[in-house]
Amino acid sequence: MDMTLHIPTILVVHGLATLISTLLCAYMWMRERRNAVLTMLVLAGATSCVSMGLHGSRLILPLPIASGFGLALAVAGAGLYWQAIAAFEGRALSMSKAMIGAVIWLGCWLVPAFQESVTARGAVLGLLIGPYCLLTARDIWRGRIAEPLPSRPLAVVANALRGIVWFLILPLSLMIAPPYDDNGGNATWFALVALTNTMLIVLSLIALLILAKERDERRYRLASEKDPLTNLANRRTFVMTAQSILAREEGRAALLLFDLDHFKHINDTYGHAAGDQVLLAFSRAIEKRMPKGWLFARIGGEEFACLLPRVTGAQGLAIAENLRQAIAAMHGEQSTPVPVTVSIGVSMGCDPTVQLDMLLAEADAALYQAKADGRNCVRLHEPAALVKTASRQLEAVKTAMRGTAIARNRRRS
Hints:
68% helix, Rhopdopsin 7-helix transmembrane proteins, Alpha-Beta Plaits, 5-stranded mixed β-sheet, single chain, elongated
């Protein structure tokens, strides 16, 4: 058993694992030097490597250098790793928080009784490094709300277990034996603790790399699902989500189709920057009035769609009218650089056979009617009214064609 748990061998393995991890982080940092996470990981790894080198030479070097300064670096390495996680979670770095543990250790080292007691040194070391590990686990866990990455539990468990292992040093020292004696010998339990700590360090680093990979994948996925200007769902996301909502609600929903009036004229007259401001202001105005459960998306240049689950056609018509009035009032509130109005078509579903394509087609027909009626208005899909509107438009086209033919005949005569 003692041969299997030979502490110098375990410490060498621990040191090599830390060194290889540090070199890997340094290689990545050389390619991306502005990355605060990599910078802190390199500092943490380098500090830990120096610490292990000094403490491993405690039979050669003076004790104040090997254990006093060397273990202070070990505490600093744990603090720097905590700040690397803080940077990963988007928080501001604090070198003072990272170094406070090392300062406390050096302060304790000034007490002669502390230097002479192996148990006291081991206990204080565990009580300083353990909280850093638990703080690291806490920060990773808190990040799940804003960024629910699948491997967060793994990273939390790895770092939390590291903290628990460090806290065990005090009870094990008191109940079994000090971690090592003055002649350099080590207790068997300390070999187990060192081996466990080595495994957990490697696991925590692997978990962090997995989290970074999952973050990139999530960002790419979100970018593919969002409209880059308004940050609303794009057409692809709208279609997929709306189909799920309709299936869940058995087709009971209203669909609002928006089209900003004369948007091309706004772009041509005021410029595309003003047009972008109009789109953003319109998006925020609708979002601000959206209750939970609505699905709002930009499905085209100046076209937007909103699915309202469990809303009837009459309710959808009233909601659309309120939204139309809110958009018309935006310019007076200085929300947009130019006057803005919107035409809205409303369609409704009421049974499980309703399909999204049908709702979109009906809302589009109602929107076409709203434009034909002068824009800046709301129309509900009503087949009879649409037929009447189409007939009027057909008669208008025929009248125009007859007028053109008469004018052409007069020129010929």
